[in-house]
Amino acid sequence: MYQYPEQSKQAAKWTMRPILTVEQRLRNIPYPDPSAHVAADIGVEIKFLLPETIYMSEDTAEVKIAIWDAAQEMWSHEHTGEVAAFNFAERLIKFTTLKFAPMAML
Fold first, then answer.
1. Of 14, 59, 94, 104, whose CB count within 10 A is highest?
2. Distance separating alpha carbons of residues 99 and 80, to the nearest angstrom
3. Domain around 55
4. Most distant pair of Cα atoms in the chain: their distance
5. Distance of alpha carbon 70 from alpha carbon 93, whole angstroms
6. Residue 48 to residue 50: CA distance in whole angstroms
């Protein structure tokens, strides 16, 4: 998730906005928020289309989604749920995650 920079301000006929560096334009917001006192146990639903160049069988029992754990430097299934649905005709895959990080379909 990203936090967008503050909106421009109107003053008379002028539009004023701060000049930001690339790093300041979009700021990454970690999910779940590490400063939150309540655990985020509700997953975020993720959907994406698989390209035609990727072979997929109709059986989704073998499909796993993993998230890169930078602290352990390895792929982890800990923060993702099972693949909830795969529409073979539309090539749409759907699953839930508790963490935003680079993802891979295994």
1. 94
2. 8
3. 2-105
4. 61
5. 25
6. 7
Whole-angstrom CA distances from 73 to 22, 67, 68, 69, 76 are 26, 11, 7, 6, 9
pTM to 2 decimal places: 0.59
Residue 76 burial by CB count (10 A; 0-12/13-18/19+): exposed, middle or buried?
middle
Strand ranges in 1-106 using DSSP code E only, listed in sequence order:
2-3, 9-11, 14-16, 27-28, 44-49, 65-69, 74-76, 85-87, 92-97, 103-105
- In tens, the pLDDT along 19-54 reads 878 777 767 666 666 666 655 567 788 888 888 898
CA dist 34 and 100 (Å) reads 12
Residues in the chain: 106
What one-letter code names the amino acid at 35? S
Give dist(CA 36, CA 43) in Å, integer: 16
Number of independent structural domains in the chain: 1
